[in-house]
Amino acid sequence: MSLLHVFGFGLKVGHLLWMLCCWIASMISLNWFINGEFKDAKAGLLGDSGSKMWFKCWDKISSYSFKIHHHYYQYIGSKRVSKTWWRKLLFSWVVGWTVASIWIFCYMSSQATEKRKETLASMCDERARMLQDQFNVSMNHIQAMSILISTFHHGKNPSAIDQRTFARYTERTAFERPLTSGVAYAVRVLHTEREQFEKQQGWTIKRMDTLEQNPVHKDDYNPDLLEPSPIQEEYAPVIFAQDIISHVVSIDMLSGKEDRENVLRARKSGKGVLTAPFRLLKTKRLGVILTFAVYKGGLPSNATPNERIQATDGYLGGVFDIESLVEKLLQQLASKQKILVSVLDTTNQSYPISMYGSNASDDGLEHVSHLNFGDPFRKHEMCCRFKQKPPWPWLAITTSIGILVIALLVGHIFHATVNRIAKVEDDCHKMMELKKQAEAADVAKSQFLATVSHEIRTPMNGVLGMLHMLMDTDLDVTQLDYVRTAQDSGKALVALINEVLDQAKIESGKLELEEVQFDLRAVLDDVLSLFSGKSQDKGVELAVYISDRVPEMLIGDPGRFRQIITNLMGNSIKFTEKGHILVTVHLVEEVIDSIEVETESSPKNTLSGFPVADRRQSWKGFRTFRGALCTGDCPFSQEASVHPFSDSINLIVSVEDTGEGIPLEAQSRVFTPFMQVGPSISRTHGGTGIGLSISKCLVGLMKGEIGFVSIPRIGSTFTFTAVFTSGCSSSKEYKSQQINNQSNTVSSEFPGMRALVMDPKPIRAKVSRYHIQRLGIHVEVVSDWKQGLSTISRGNNAIHMVLIEQEVWDRDLNSSAFFINNLEKIDHGTPPKVFLLSNSISSSRANTTTSGVFDLTVIPKPLRASMLVASLQRAMGVGNKGNPRNGELPSLSLRNLLLGRKILIVDDNNVNLKVAAGALKKYGADVVSATRGVEAIELLTPPHQFDACFMDIQMPEMDGYVIPYSI
Q1: Higher pLDDT, residue 955 or 638
Q2: Tens of pLDDT along 270-309?
Q3: Residue 233: what are its φ and ψ, rounded to 5°?
Q4: Are 650 and 624 in contact, with CB atoms under 8 Å apart?
């Protein structure tokens, strides 16, 4: 694992993206081919040959992509590359980026140097150009002055110019010649004219080379001390000079070596010529002289050199102080980035003459700009250097170091990523191994639970079966009590085993729900029968109410629904010592749309008159009810609500009690497995603490929610929702079933009968009317004796039975007797039968007996259809006269139910054989037992004499699945 693995992973991702793009393109093109659009577009942009080429190209792309995929898994995914190669690749990465960083540093440094050179060249060229431009301006003015002298000095007789006039003029026009230090004019004098010229001027022509050999300072300079110019063919004495250089008057310009060459070249060429740099008189600073020849008038522009020499009248020269001029120029171009400027005369390349500046510099960069002062013979250059050393190339340094650091970080990240990937893969392999071990352990656990469940249930069934058979024998009271205690303990142990097994299934995720049709009301009647004995012993009123809008038949898991109700009612029975326990079932939409079904917490509006916790708080956090507040796009309006034309039935079930309540500090752990409210609960009431946890999981499997509200010393209300499927095949059947629910006839023996229920509590009267209406009996409700007599005496419809709540009967026994006596006096035929609805049969019979009234028919609570039918049949004299009581043997007809039937029982457990044989023999059957599958096959091989066979599923050698196939 290393960077190559990451690179391979990137190739894999790129390959997948490429395949996705190619797939999209191929699907679009195939759609074009299928729809015929591709072919119809002018022989298709491709035609038949083009389509074949497209498919060939696609095949090549696919094969190439799959080769990349294959090589990735072959060389990278399979880890065939050794770790040494990964290290070498990482080392190459580091070395490569180090070299790249050095190259970047060198490149950026060279770029900075080039930029510095360009800056220096730009500055140097700018200064050279300005110096040259200003020199040209001065040169043009000097040339103009030469024309002026030719016109007003030589062209006039007498001359219009003298020294004073020339000095004043040149002084006033000095601003037009910014680079000149002074201007002087030397006239051409032949040797024959010298004597006359000196007399006319009043001074002698002086020699210049003596001054050059013996320089003097400005303060001690005296022209009278100069030697006369030697005899020569012609002279060029200065007759006019600007005041600043007036000391050159009378000096012969042809007596100096440099000036002589300059003068001769100027008159011959007709252009301005420059001297070599020399020290100026008095100032001793380097300078040059620009000389123009002054010609006689009428000289043609194309004159020959000889003609120019003959036409020469004099020479006008301008003195340039190079050092001061360049300094002024540099001051005008002051810049933040100072440079050193040198002006050189490079006429002699071997020995250039420095006119200004110094060659000393700390910077190795240098730029040379050529200067053109109008004299083709003399060559000048401006050399520029930076004054300071170049700064450190921080940008190049930081950039190269930054790139190197980033590359090292990327390498480190890749290295860490590869190591992490390797670790994750190793962990994944370990997790896969652990997963396999966990799955194997889970399978072993499931097998263990199934085996233990079977092995535990088998002896427990034997114990319970033998105890049940023992109860059918002649036992005294003490022995019967012992047997019943043992049977209850066995049932509790079986219930505990079932809970533990359910919890194990939930934890392993293997708990599944059935989808069968069932009668919800019959299921709740069975649960009421289960707890009726305990509620009667405690004097707690137990009741169930199901809304008429709830369908009679539903599709779901009745066993798990019964388990939820049993857990909740069992807890209520366990913790309730007085008051009531009420189970209500409604549709969710019914609860949302109607306030009538909501139970208020006032004593007058509860089943027993005791205050209860507000059930609305128990469903406060349900998503279904939060969604009910929104519009049609809420979850409830789309899924959870029940429409008459929808198969989904969303029920809301509440279990309300007036028990001890749950302490506030314990309410957060109510649904935690194996957790109870307090340590004394298990000792006082028993239980394992997993019933509510299992109920919550079952509710979740039913796509519902569960919640509760509890107030200490007031009571608790648990509410849950569950989604079922309607057992009706059509909406029409659903509507007819809703109508039938209002007059559902569990028994068809009471059609057209009318009943009067006397109960002052509306909720309790509503529950009583619900159960009586299930028998097809029309029910009217009154709250006291007076209303009851008034309803019966009206005589519009005969009342066949009167059901009086025990609370009304016990409140005033005299009124009770008065009511019974008046019933006999009413002249409407046979008086109605009177029934007493009571939680305790013994107390009700005692009250009715001691009151001196005839013996009433007592209907024990909780009310349920089977018990009501039996009680009304016995009292009204219709249908079956009654059922045998608990503990009695079956009637003679039941004892002979299986008489003459031969039944085979196959089980490897002798206890189960005895229990099953005893139960079947109780009904007159002839039982044959077998303990092995082979033996059962021999007995059941045709022809045989058996009418039925009961066979165990789990048996050694051959189980209950193999034997039927073998037969």
Answers
A1: 955
A2: 888 988 887 776 667 788 889 999 998 888 888 898 989 8
A3: -60, -40
A4: yes
- pLDDT band at residue 910 using 50, 70 and 90 as cut-offs: confident
959 three-state secondary structure:
coil
CA distance 522 to 746: 10
Yes or no: say if 960 and 952 are a contact pair by the CB < 8 Å rule: yes
In the chain the first and final C-alpha atoms are separated, in Å, by: 62
C-alpha span between 771 and 872 (Å, rounded): 13
- The answer to whether 568 and 544 are in contact (CB under 8 A) is no
Pairing of strands 380-386, 278-279: unpaired
**Tokens, residue 40:** 């119809």
Does residue 316 contact residue 291 with C-beta atoms inside 8 Å? yes
Model confidence at 595, pLDDT cuts 50, 70, 90, reads very low
Q: 959-964 contacts: CB < 8 A, separation 24 or more?
A: 959/933, 960/906, 962/933, 963/906, 963/933, 963/936, 963/937
Q: How far is CA 95 from CA 81, 91, 398, 796, in A?
A: 21, 6, 19, 111
For 245, residues 6+ apart whose C-beta sits below 8 A from its C-beta are 181, 182, 183, 184, 281, 319
The yes-or-no verdict on residue 556 having pLDDT over 90 is yes
Distance CA 403, CA 94 (A): 12
From residue 470, alpha-carbon distances to 457, 460, 527 in Å are: 19, 15, 26
pLDDT in tens, 132-155: 888 888 888 888 898 899 888 888
Backbone dihedral region of 475: left (phi > 0), alpha (psi from -120 to 50 degrees) or beta?
A: beta
* DSSP-H helix ranges across 3-82: 3-35, 37-40, 47-71
Q: Counting every residue, how long is the chain?
A: 967
Of 697, 624, 611, 728, give the one whose Cα is nearest residue 658: 611
pLDDT at 604: 57
Q: Which amino acid is at 817?
A: A
Separation CA 254–CA 229 (nearest Å)? 9
Cβ partners under 8 Å of residue 192, min gap 6? none
Give the per-residue SS3 of 229-294: CCCCCEECEEEEECHHHHHHCCEEHHHCHHHHHHHHHHHHHCCCEECCCEECCECCCEEEEEEEEE
Strand 778-782 to 580-587 pairing: unpaired
Locus of tokens 């779901």: 556
Q: What burial letters (b/e) apply to 162-192, b meaning 16+ CB within 10 Å?
A: ebeebbebbeeebeebebbbbbbbbbbbeee
Cα–Cα distances in angstroms (integers) from residue 378 to residues 142, 292, 539, in the given order:
19, 15, 138
Judge contact between 879 and 924, C-beta under 8 A. no
The whole-angstrom separation of Cα 406 and Cα 403 is 5
The C-alpha atoms of residue 387 and residue 368 are separated, in whole angstroms, by 15
Determine the Cα–Cα distance for residues 733 and 738; give it in Å rounded to an integer: 9
Which single residue is written with the structure tokens 């039938």?
740
Specify the pLDDT at position 15: 55
Q: Angle at the Cα of 202 (from 200 to 205), degrees rounded to 5?
A: 95
Query: Measured in whole angstroms, how far is the alpha carbon of residue 935 from the centre of its chain?
Result: 67
Please report, for the chain, how many H helices and E strands are present, in that order.
Answer: 30, 27
pLDDT at 850: 40
Res 63: pLDDT: 65
pLDDT confidence of 605, banded at 50, 70, 90?
confident
The Cα 291–Cα 184 span in angstroms is: 10
Give me 511's structure tokens. 């708990």
Alpha helix stretches (DSSP H) within 36-46: 37-40
The token pair that represents 228 in the structure block = 């006369």
The pTM of this model reads: 0.54
